[in-house]
Each structure stands twice: as structure tokens, then as C-alpha cells.
């Protein structure tokens, strides 16, 4: 009887220990699983990302916007393309936007001086000037100096716009004086004048000449190397959709984004 009682007690203790060990193991496993799922879940992006970007970025940023929407279902990228100086003024004036991509550090400084960015802007590409002529280049424009020929209708970007400031810098470096038939508010406006044959030539960016295809003919000139523009990008301080905006900037700066920009003719930062 005593032996049976002792054996029963020992069995009960063993069963209890086994049960306790099993409970402990299950709890630990459950905890690990929970922690694992918690760390692997990232917040789902949604809503609209509003990007103010230099006109010369239109084609490449539009493509990147579509890629962003594909990668993040439920998001939409809205763009406002134009002259960087005008965009900067809109932002400091209170226009709602998430991201600003400018065609020069000077125009970005208009925004940073007002402390309207969240952190320091980062240069993501560079761009160089090129002469755009009507197809076939009937006026035989072969250099920057050729743009000063009498009777040649030349269009420049306004000097307050990065492409206009860069063109003026190249002209000054060459000691050339040029009076254009018009100053345009952004680089696409200058290019359009040539595409419509309302002008014989315009000083624009290499990327714009490439984007225009056979609508214009490009003429490179060595002085453009003295006026290469850095393009900075920044998250804006009062961004309505900051998380999605950060993700868009990350895409622009990624290898995938840089490939799209390089294929458009932009130079690496």
C-alpha cells in the first residue's frame, strides 16, 4: 500500500512537471511568434503624395510616380511641375506639398531659408545644358557663339529660373552677349518655342533635348561644363503625407530611381 501510494505521488509529480514544461514551451513559442510578426509588419502607405518638381524632371518623375503607385497600392503621386523659383515661392507661400525637387541649390535655398524643409536637402542628380535647334539645324548652329548671329531667333529661360541662370553663366564665361526674342518661365516653355518653330534655337537641358526626340536637334557646347546644375530634393516640414513622401524620396535615390534618371540623360550627383 505504501509502495503504491509513493509510486502514485511520483507519477503525479512527473505529470505535473511535464505539463508545466509544455505550458512554458508553448508560451515561449507564442511570444516569439508574436514578436516576429510585430517586427516584420511595416505601416501600409496610403493617400496622395504631392511633389513639386522642376519642369525638366517631368518625364522621369512621372515614370517614377507610376512605379511608386505600383509598389504601394492605395497611394497616388500628384505632381506640380514648373520653374523652380515659382515652385519655391508657392511653397513658402503656404501651398500644401510633401516633396520639393529643385533644379538648383539656389532655388532650394528659398525654401530652406524659411525653414520649410524637414531636414537638409540632398543632391540626387545633376544636369547640363545643350542647344536645341529645329530639326535639321538649318541655321548651322555649331557653338554657343553661333547663337549671337544676327537674325537668329533664340529663346532662353528667364534668369530667375535655374536653366536661365546656368545659360547666363555659360555666356558670361565665354564673354558673349545674347539678346533672346523671349525669356520663358521654365525650360519646357523654351523648348516648346523651338518645337513649334517659333524660335530657331533655345538653350535648355540635355534631358529636355532627349525627351523631345525628333522634334528638335541637339548641339553640345563645351561651355556647358562650367554651368552644371545640382538638383536637390527635400521632404517639406508640413508635409501632409510625410511617411509616403519619405518613401518616394527613397525611390528617387535608389538604384532603380537613378537608373530611370540616368536613362533620361541626368548626370550622377
From TrEMBL:
Keywords: Metal-binding, Signal
Pfam (any one): SBP_bac_11
Residue intervals passing through the bilayer: none
Biased composition (Low complexity): 24-42
Annotated signal peptide: 1-24
Residue span of region Disordered: 24-45
InterPro entries assigned to the protein according to its UniProt record, in alphabetical order: ModA, ModA/WtpA
Family per similarity comment: Belongs to the bacterial solute-binding protein ModA family.
NCBIfam families xref list: modA
Protein's name according to its UniProt entry: Molybdate-binding protein
Organism encoding this protein: Streptomyces canarius
